[in-house]
């Protein structure tokens, strides 16, 4: 009996709970996706207030954001391997509860060290949520409905990333920076109630082994080196040397037991190019979003409210197209739909390249909405493409890889945009150069998806 438990746990994430679709669990996955991505951006606007309130420098306050992003990116792949061996329901309840508890701890922080420690812990549990969200959506419906199911978290996640600054600004104006960390609690509570009521009771928790912790340390060090190098490079290009240790750290990890299964899953599924397209599209979007916000809020520019309303055109386009993307993927195939979405996003970003100070908010908004429509068409089908190609019993590992690609894209985009914008005045030439770079990066996603072919079985 004991010998059969690992097999049962390992295959848990690759099968459906029963013959009936459980769309309420897909809704829970979408809510958690929104919250997890919201948390990556909602704190950004509060950094100045945190610095003043806790009497620390702006650099120290920035770790309220970096403290969440670094463990999240570092733990995605180890979390995927661990989740292939445990019960989805138990892991999800643990992750959501601890994620919410860390939010409370962060809101109560009396000093910066407390806040950073709470955010580091929250990022660790956030990594588990990022991996579990597509798994929950994929295993809650029949295979023929996965395109529509995957479009829910794939659409609501980026929606949370884009609306984060808007929500953060409203909370800061009316309730202060501590409320920024508490806004997620009602959504977490709703997700816990849904999972407890509807998720099947299968599998148990088990602690991660030491090898997984070593893998997390290697990946975390590599990601930290790259992000710090890109963040500091605009001030002095020599900071790029910080990224040099990243390559040997990744090579060491690939030779370890934790790295080999991930590489094997990507090779067996034939989704290396698909994952790269997710990273490219996320980086292009994040870079453009960052530059447009800076442009609109520049000297003599739009008010914070007007800027927020203009930027909301992107998530509005995503929401409108997200459901259609899932239906088209189920009817015509995931790859053609994902390819069309990437092309539409690239077109929207390219139309923003001639950005000028004379443009009205409407001129920017309709182009952003077009790019958002493309992201809505692309998100769910791309996720379905990866999850459907996953080998048996490796659904969480495949999901963690695509989530890592998306998270890296969101993290790298603003840093790449800042470096590209140094080519000239941020209000005109530099911003155009940065947006052109963003469109070019997004265009690589089109090429990668066009070249993708399903591996022979």
Description of the molecule:
It is a single chain. The longest helix is centred in the middle third of the chain and has 29 residues, at 146-174. Residues 1-19 have low confidence and may be disordered. Helix content is 75%, strand content 0%. The chain contains 20 helices and no strands.
Put the structure in a nutshell.
75% of the residues lie in helices and 0% in strands. By secondary structure, the chain is mainly alpha-helical.
Question: Which characteristics define this entry?
Answer:
Growth Hormone, Chain: A; 3 domains; 457 residues; globular; 20 helices; 0% strand; mainly alpha
Strand content: under 5%
Ends distance:
33 Å
Low-confidence stretches: 1-19
Give the CATH architecture of the largest domain.
Answer: Up-down Bundle
Instruction: Average the pLDDT over all residues and give the rounded result.
Output: 78
Highest-level CATH class of the largest domain: Mainly Alpha
H/E series: HHHHHHHHHHHHHHHHHHHH
User: How much helical structure, as a percent, in the residues?
Assistant: over 70%
Instruction: Supply the number of helical segments.
Output: 20
């Amino acid at each position: 009996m004991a010998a059969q438990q690992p097999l049962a746990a390992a295959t848990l994430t690759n099968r459906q709970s029963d013959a009936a679709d459980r769309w309420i669990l897909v809704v829970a996955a979408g809510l958690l996706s929104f919250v997890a991505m919201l948390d990556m951006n909602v704190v950004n606007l509060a950094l100045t207030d945190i610095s003043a309130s806790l009497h620390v420098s702006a650099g120290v306050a920035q770790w309220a954001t970096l403290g969440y992003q670094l463990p999240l990116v570092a733990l995605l792949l180890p979390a995927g391997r661990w989740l292939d061996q445990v019960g989805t329901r138990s892991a999800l309840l643990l992750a959501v509860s601890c994620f919410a508890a860390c939010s409370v701890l962060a809101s109560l922080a009396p000093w910066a060290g407390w806040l950073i420690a709470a955010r580091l812990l929250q990022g660790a549990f956030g990594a588990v949520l990022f991996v579990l969200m597509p798994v929950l959506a994929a295993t809650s419906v029949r295979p023929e409905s996965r395109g529509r199911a995957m479009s829910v978290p794939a659409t609501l996640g980026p929606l949370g990333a884009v609306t984060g600054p808007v929500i953060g600004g409203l909370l800061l104006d009316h309730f202060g920076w501590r409320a920024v960390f508490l806004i997620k609690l009602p959504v977490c509570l709703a997700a816990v109630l849904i999972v407890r009521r509807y998720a099947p009771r299968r599998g148990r928790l088990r602690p991660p082994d030491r090898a997984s912790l070593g893998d997390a340390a290697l990946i975390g060090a590599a990601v930290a080196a790259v992000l710090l190098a890109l963040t500091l490079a605009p001030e002095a290009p020599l900071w790029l040397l910080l990224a040099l240790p990243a390559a040997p750290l990744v090579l060491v990890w690939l030779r370890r037991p934790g790295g080999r299964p991930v590489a094997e899953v990507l090779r067996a599924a034939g989704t290396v190019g698909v994952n790269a397209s997710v990273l490219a599209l996320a980086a292009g979007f994040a870079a453009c979003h960052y530059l447009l916000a800076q442009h609109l809020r520049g000297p003599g520019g739009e008010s914070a409210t007007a800027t927020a309303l203009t930027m909301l055109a992107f998530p509005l386009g995503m929401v409108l197209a997200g459901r259609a993307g899932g239906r088209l993927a189920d009817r015509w195939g995931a790859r053609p739909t994902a390819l069309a979405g990437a092309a539409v996003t690239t077109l929207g970003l390219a139309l923003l390249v001639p950005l000028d100070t004379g443009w009205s908010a409407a001129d920017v908004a309709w182009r952003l909405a077009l790019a958002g429509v493309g992201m809505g068409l692309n998100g769910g089908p791309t996720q379905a493409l990866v999850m459907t190609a996953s080998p048996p019993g490796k659904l969480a590992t495949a999901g963690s890889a695509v989530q890592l690609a998306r998270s890296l894209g969101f993290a790298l985009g603003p840093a790449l945009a800042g470096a590209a914008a140094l080519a000239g005045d941020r209000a005109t030439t530099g911003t155009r150069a940065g947006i052109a770079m963003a469109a070019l990066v997004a265009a690589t996603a089109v090429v990668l998806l066009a070249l993708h072919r399903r591996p022979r079985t």
